[in-house]
Every structure is written in structure tokens, then in C-alpha cells.
Amino acid sequence: MDFATVIQILDSAVRLMTPLLLACLAGLFSERSGIFDIGLEGKMLMAAFASAAAAAVTGNVWIGLAAGVAGSAALSLVHGAASITFRGNQLISGVAINFLASGLTVLLGQTWFGLGGRTPALDGAARFAEWQLPFAAQIAPVPVIGPLYADVLSGHTPLVYVALLAVPATWWLLYRTRFGLRLRAVGENPASVDTAGVSVTRLRWTAIAITGLLTGLAGAYLATGLSAGFVKEMSAGRGYIALAALIFANWRPWRALGATFLFGLMEAVANRFPGIDLGPFTVPSMFMNALPYILTVIILAGFIGRATPPRAGGEPYVKES
Amino acid sequence: MTFLKSLLAGGATLALTATGALAEPALIFDLGGKFDKSFNEAAYAGAQRWADETGGTYKELEMQSEAQREQALRRLAETGANPIVTTGFAFADVLNQVAPDYPDTRFVIIDTVVEQPNVQSVVYNEPEGSYLAGILAGMASKSGTAGFIGGMDIPLIHKFRCGFAQGFMAARPDGKVVTNFTGTTPAAWNDPVKGAELARAQIAQGADVIYAAAGGTGIGVLQAAADEGILSVGVDSNQNHLHPGKVLTSVLKRVDNSVYDAFKAGTAVEPGVKVMDLKSDGVGLAMDDNNKPLITAEMTAAVDDAKAKIIAGETKVHDYMTDNACPVE
Lengths: 321, 329
Hints:
Chain A is mainly alpha-helical. In chain A, 69% of the residues lie in helices and 2% in strands.
């Protein structure tokens, strides 16, 4: 394996990591506030559809992005209403959102475009173009660092950089602001937050709104950044892998970056080498694709490290009266 | 009381429709959906052509889940639809159970074989069509490396790959074909993001013509190929128009012709196996204005020559499904 191949795999890993990272951070906000969200998949799918549809009609990718965020935020509202306001079961609400998104995207797509749930192919200004980072051309000839900067880091669509910047932003918000302290507290012990005179409901709604925004970006990246248009079920389980990454990352932002990059890297390696020949036996690509789930199960079982989910997660908060 | 009335009325209407619809043909689309720009859409086009030409009407049903298959077949058979055309190999098991219960109804299954006295099985010789595409790819390729991206990893898709690889090797004996499959679950048919990523990985390995037999995933493959400035080959329906000048050709399975023929034959559909190959124009390559600039006279001649040889039986295109092996890598 030569250096060019390594660069190519890393480049691919960054692209594959981005939707996972955005969705993982989205789940982080929601779950840290005590709301389980298995509807990440559905929200991504809805955002992918809304962004592709709006971009196809207007020819402007930024309008598409806004529509994608709006679509995903709308489903977040449903989740919030069901699980915060009406204190319903968060898992059931999440499953319902996944089903709703899966059906609604195809139905609307077929009604509007008549392409079997597909949106028209996007081109030109309706897609995200690749950004070259400053000095990429100048640094490129430098050995090792040059290709790493010019090929792996530079030359992605803007949402990749948004995702990368979202990691320190999330860290700062969670660990360096009053809002973050309260958010973490509300996921551990909502009663104490309530006693301190802070509204649990409001905090959780805010977290859900941020989740909607981030899944919106993830979905829009799938449809307008990585591909050029919406195809039914195009999220293809990435919302669930993001959840696995969230557990893998132990609900922490920097580790989320590491976990999603690892998962992206595994997929990139599996794409590049469908069967890895280890002499006596060959590792099939299916194994590489299953590895994120296998690792998550191992972690959940407590063999490596320990998963410590927010303690109040999954339970609606009922004020004692 | 009123409820009972409406129930009765509903039943009466149903009965009326049932008798009125006697011998109306029916078409069932598989899970890919009617407008998949591929297999099912070709079936729809054939049915529509029949309807336009004869002014007749037909019933249609789109599968939403695996569980509906038997119910859908039985319901159509009971309303008197005849013949009933189903698209997709996934209907085979269900049809085997349902067909004996309706001996007077003729069924047509496309893409697989069901041995029942009232079933016509239409199968396509995909390797032959893919072989021709392989020859074109071999002549268009500068690097001598072609890519193949399949959807779900099943023998049927290996069949496409094997035909393509044989054609490619015939044109470029020193060449190689890089192969990837998207996945092992039905989700592999609808993952354009992964399709694009696989295409990029193949381009990095030198591939400059990529053949995608992967349903909705193929949309991503064709897109990535067009973005990276290399050629691609579409499948099932004519996909040349998706990226004019960037799609070398599409391997056609003339599902439309089969549906049209079945509808036209009506209740007189011949039971048995009907193999659609190059000879019967059941498979072929899409040539239109979109890919005209890419096809040289030399290529046309080579394809025509290969086609004539296959029809004459001089060239044998190996079918992967006969022994689950491919003579070329």
C-alpha cells in the first residue's frame, strides 16, 4: 500500500465521517439533555429530501440547506412534543419518526416530481462545490504534510468544515457555558435543575432544536454534498451508526470525532479493499461494514471501557406536586 | 344500520368491478417502485405502450413490503385479471404457491423461472448484453482498467459482472476489472452515497469506465463518474440521458417488450420458459443522441461483429449462475 492510497482512503474517510459526525453530535445534545433519539435516521432522511427538493426547484443549494434544516427541525418538534410536552415514550416516538420520514419523503417526492420518490439530479449552483483551503496549492508539494493538507483536509464541501468546527463548539458549549452545565445536569438529575429554578422543559426543547439543526446539516450533506439529489432511503442506516458512535464516544464531543472518523475509516478501507488478504484467510468487506456495530456491542457489554449514558435518559420528567 | 348499508353497497360495487374487469391484464411492480428509472419503469413503459396502442386498460399494483406479495397476487387473480405479470425474482416462491390455485389464470414472471402449467417465465440473458458493454468499455478505456459496482451481493448480479468482464477482456486481454459490491442487504440498492464513494475508490485504482448494476445506488455511481470526468455504463433502462456525453451506454433488458408481448397475447400467453437474448432483441445496448459522440465507427463495428458471433453461437458468453464461477477475473 503506497502513500497515495493512504491519502485517498483518508480523504474518503473524511467524506464518510461527516454525516456520521453531524448526526452523532445531534444525538449528543439530545441524549445529554435526557431525551433518547433513535429518530436521527428519519430526521436525516427528511432533511436530505427537503434539501434536495428545495435545491432542485430553486437551483440554490443554500436555500436547499435551509429547507433541509427546516424539514429535520419539523420532525424534531414532533419528537419534542411527544416526549417532552406529552411525556410519551421516547423510543416509540423515535421509531415513529423513522417510519414517517421513510414514507413521507417518497410520497411527497412522487407527488411533486413524479420520479418515483427521487428528486431531479442537481447540478451547478444547486450542489455544494468543493472548497480549496487557503494555500492548499502552495503546501501541496511539501512531502507528507502537503498531501495531507491539500488532499485530505482541503477540497471538501463547506459542510465538512462546519462539522469539524461543530466539535470544539459543542465542547465549549457543554463544558464552558452555563447552558452546557445545566444541559448536562438535566440529563443526569432533572429534579435538581428544577429545584434550582431552571425550566427542565425549556432546556430539553433547546437541546432538541439543536438536534434538529445538526441532523438537518447531516441530511443536506448527504443529498447536496456527497450525492446530487435524493434517492429513497438514501440515509441507509447512517443514523443508527451515528448512535453506535455516540455510545462508542461515551457521549463526549471529542471522542465523537474520533469514533465517527474510525467508523468512516473502516468503511473507506472496506470500499478500497473488498477482501483484505491476511495470508491464511481473507477478511470480507461485510466484516468491515459490521465492525462499528460489533465494537459498540463489545463496549456496551463492558469488555473495553464502560458506557455511562446520561442517567435520566429516556425518562420523561414529571414535576412532583 | 347506515354502516351496514354502506358495507353492502361497497360489496356490490366490488362485485360489479370484478365482473366488469374480466380478462383485464394486470401488472405488479416489485419493491424498487414503479418509477425506479430502471427495471420496473421499463415494465410500466411496456404496459403503457400496450394501453396506448389498443386503448385497453390494465390493473397495476406496487409492492410496499415483502408481506404483501401473496395477498396482492391472490386479490388480482380473484378480480379476474388475466394475464397477471409480475416483475422481479422475488415473486418466485409466492407464485409457486398461488398459481396452482387459479388454473384458469395465466401468470407471467419476469426475471426468474417458475415451473407451473399456467406460468410463463421470462428470463434475460444479461451476460450477453453485459458482454457487448464490456467490449465497448474495453475500447473506450485508456487505462485498461474498468470498474464494476454491483448492488446486493447475489449471484444474479455476479452474472452481470461476469458478462461484462468477459467482454472487457476480449477487447483488452491485458486489462483488469475492479469489482465492488455495495452490500448484502436490500439497502444496498438505495445507497447513492456509498455508490459514489465506491466509484471514487475505483477511479483511484485506475478505472476509467465503471459499470453499475446497482439500482438506486447506481445513480450515485454515474454521478461520481461524471463528476470525475470518466465514463460509466448504465443498466436495465436507458440511463444515457442522466449525464449526456458521460454515460458510455446502458445495458438494456427489454422488460418493456416482454410486458407488451404478454399483454398483447392476453389470455393466450404461452406457459413455459421464454429466454430473451440478443437474438430475440431481449437484451441490448442503448445507443442514442446522448452517447453518440462517445461511440466511434470502430466500436459500432466491433459490437455488431460480437453480436453476430454470439447469435451465430461462435462466441459463448459464460453464465455465472450455471456454475457460480467466472472464467475471467
